[in-house]
Amino acid sequence: MERTQLLELANKYGSPLYVYDTDKIASQYKRLTGAFNSVKSLKLNYAVKALSNVNILKFLTNLGAGLDTVSIQEVHLSLTTGIDPKNIIYTPNGVSLQEIEEVAKLGVQINIDNLSILELFGQKHPEIPVCVRINPHIMAGGNSKISVGHIDSKFGISIHQVPHIKRVVENTGMNINGIHMHTGSDILDIDTFLRASEILFDVAKQFKNIDFIDFGSGFKVPYKEGDISTDIEQLGVQLSERFNEFCTEYGKEITLMFEPGKFLVSEAGSFLAKVNVVKQTTSTVFAHVDSGFNHLVRPMMYDSYHHITNISNPTGKDRYYSVVGYICETDTFASNRRISEISEEDVLCFHNAGAYCFSMASNYNSRYIPAEVMVVNGKEYLIRKRQTMQDILHNQVVVDFAPKNKTKKEKVTA
């Protein structure tokens, strides 16, 4: 989106503000489907947790995407779009059998990631097809907190426990219709996917009724000019060829699935914040914005880089700033960052703010969660109102626990 349009939106809806460019979402979706166009059956299930506004979900389902969910709440949210439940996959971690059973009643594809629940579910519901999440014991991801396929991870059933899965299937008569993995996020090396694919192919051929193999996602996107990213086109060529070979070996065409989140929406998002104060100290120039890690936690949680531009003064002389928030803790978005000269009330744009930004926002310090705007074919739509104090108080129950004043009765003597 153009700088002038972003400024107009910030002026109209206030700051901080999240803005999403659906043209970018659509182009990323088409790029990914195009990379795997030689596969007869391809399904992209958008990872709802990345950005869960129902309007974004509707936009993606209209493109043809299914939805990847991790909680029963995300399932219910997804169903509000009118999507066929069969196009939703549910991949929780460490949830109760009760929640999985409630989701199963909705007709959603179940994905189970531990032996205990697999056995319990199979004993009670052998008629319901189930996908299993495999831990391939591959370390992959841009940060230890988003690397989820290694041997010490809490996610998935170890590849060394496949004989146990087979025994559960034999004892319960349940049907395994899919094999799934997700090794981590921000994966650059396509060899990671290719090595993991061989592991999944080896697991899949041990089950007779596989309908799909889900390779997760984790494709890396660029965060700044000159940054490197996953070569989706090359991955498409190599993985598609191997997948088609496997289908021939397996004896039937199965579906190749991915669950992209960040790849589809990260670059589409812009986070706009206004500068409250420019503060010069003995060693640093701070630009304090009207936001903090309550609205954008990734730099603090994952050491993530977000490119920051001053859209109010794009041609100004470059200076070095530490961009910080207004939270009463250290909340540094960028340290010693080169940005065009900043003045108070300038609007800064944080790029790559579409994934895991708004969805991880909170009311810390009792600050309001920002508004969201979606731009479709150049037209803006407010898709979430900014919170108010009434919203913060909405579910709080005020209890009158103060002791009541009692009047002592005077003792009457004869």
UniProtKB/TrEMBL annotation:
Span of domain Orn/DAP/Arg decarboxylase 2 C-terminal: 18-354
- Give, as in the UniProt entry, the pathway in which the protein acts: Amino-acid biosynthesis; L-lysine biosynthesis via DAP pathway; L-lysine from DL-2,6-diaminopimelate: step 1/1
**Which keywords label this protein?**
Amino-acid biosynthesis, Decarboxylase, Lyase, Lysine biosynthesis, Pyridoxal phosphate
Where N6-(pyridoxal phosphate)lysine occurs along the chain?
Answer: K49
Catalytic activity of the protein? meso-2,6-diaminopimelate + H(+) = L-lysine + CO2
Q: Can you tell me which residues form the catalytic site?
A: C328
User: What Pfam families does this protein map onto?
Assistant: Orn_Arg_deC_N, Orn_DAP_Arg_deC
Domain Orn/DAP/Arg decarboxylase 2 N-terminal spans what residues?
A: 23-266
> Which molecular-function annotations from GO does this UniProt entry contain?
diaminopimelate decarboxylase activity; pyridoxal phosphate binding
GO BP terms, alphabetized: lysine biosynthetic process via diaminopimelate
Alphabetical list of InterPro entries matching this protein: Ala_racemase/Decarboxylase_C, DAP_deCOOHase_LysA, De-COase2_C, De-COase2_N, De-COase2_pyr-phos_BS, Orn/DAP/Arg_de-COase, PLP-binding_barrel
Q: Which residues bind substrate?
A: R298, Y302, E329, Y356
Q: Which residues bind pyridoxal 5'-phosphate?
A: G218, Y356
Enzyme superclass (EC): lyase
Q: Which cofactor does it need?
A: pyridoxal 5'-phosphate
- Give the E.C. number(s): 4.1.1.20
Subunit structure as annotated in this protein's UniProt entry:
Homodimer.
Q: Which family does it belong to?
A: Belongs to the Orn/Lys/Arg decarboxylase class-II family. LysA subfamily.
Reported function: Specifically catalyzes the decarboxylation of meso-diaminopimelate (meso-DAP) to L-lysine.
Name of the protein this chain belongs to: Diaminopimelate decarboxylase
- Supply the source organism for this entry: Polaribacter cellanae
